[in-house]
From TrEMBL:
Family stated for the protein in its record: Belongs to the nitrile hydratase subunit alpha family.
Segments for region (Disordered): 1-24
Start and end residues of each Nitrile hydratase alpha/Thiocyanate hydrolase gamma domain: 27-207
Organism this protein belongs to: Aurantimonas manganoxydans (strain ATCC BAA-1229 / DSM 21871 / SI85-9A1)
Pfam family, one: NHase_alpha
Protein name from the UniProt record: nitrile hydratase
GO-annotated molecular function: nitrile hydratase activity; transition metal ion binding
Gene3D superfamilies: Nitrile hydratase alpha /Thiocyanate hydrolase gamma (3.90.330.10)
Length: 221
């Protein structure tokens, strides 16, 4: 993929179960079949594969991204740096690697909501958010996030007031995005660790807007 751009939606639009399942989508079924073949041929160590998956699900993200957001909420200088050079600001916290080399942070405001999609494939900042959710890679999300972002958000339970515009950001192989949600009210006395526990994966993609000061941390399911 080449190029990157944001679109204003107001103007246009784990651990794998290796048993076969007739309800799997075609791509998942193909991946699982390929994994089975490679394992049987001795070309893939299933334990090593599980360790890699576990790393991205429970260690790499979305906790890394949540830490970035919490620091931006707590430190205005860091927030400014994140807005100017997200790649460097994120790397300063030690979060670098696969599909996270070139980042841009986009900040939600009372007047603007940001939504991230990859219209051509499923580019996603693994080192910051972990494994992408299944719906992020689905054709309906990839097309409708651009053509009907408010409709997509409503399906995620996000009903935006008329005065809030939607900006849709199209991730590419060269540039990936991190949505910085607004800090919840009533969290002024919380530590960065406590703030990070409030940040969800979906809020950093843009399919969630209002975070609760009493919310539990979300894993990348």
């Amino acid at each position: 993929m080449t190029g990157s751009h944001g679109r204003d939606g107001d103007h246009h639009g784990h651990h794998h179960d290796r048993d076969h399942d007739n309800h799997l989508d075609p791509m998942t079924a193909r991946v699982m079949a390929l994994e089975t073949i490679l394992t049987e041929k001795g070309m893939v160590d299933p334990d090593a594969l599980d360790a890699i998956i576990d790393t991205y699900e429970t260690k790499v993200g979305p906790r890394n991204g949540a830490s970035v957001v919490a620091k931006a909420w707590s430190d205005p200088d860091y927030a400014d740096w994140l807005a100017r050079d997200a790649t460097a600001a994120i790397a300063s916290l030690g979060f670098t690697g696969r599909q996270g080399e070139h980042m841009q942070a986009v900040f939600n405001t009372p007047e603007r909501h940001n939504l991230v999609v990859c219209t051509l494939c499923s580019c996603y900042p693994w080192s910051v958010l972990g494994l992408p959710p299944v719906w992020y890679k689905s054709p309906p999300y990839r097309s409708r996030a651009v053509s009907d972002p408010r409709g997509v958000l409503r399906e995620f339970g996000v009903a935006l007031p008329d005065g809030v515009s939607v900006r849709v950001w199209d991730s590419t192989a060269e540039l990936r995005y991190l949505v910085v949600p607004e800090r919840p009210a009533g969290t002024e006395g919380l530590s960065e660790a406590a703030l990070a526990a409030l940040v969800t994966r979906n809020s950093m993609i843009g399919t969630e807007r209002d975070l609760s000061p009493h919310a539990a941390p979300e894993t990348a399911a």
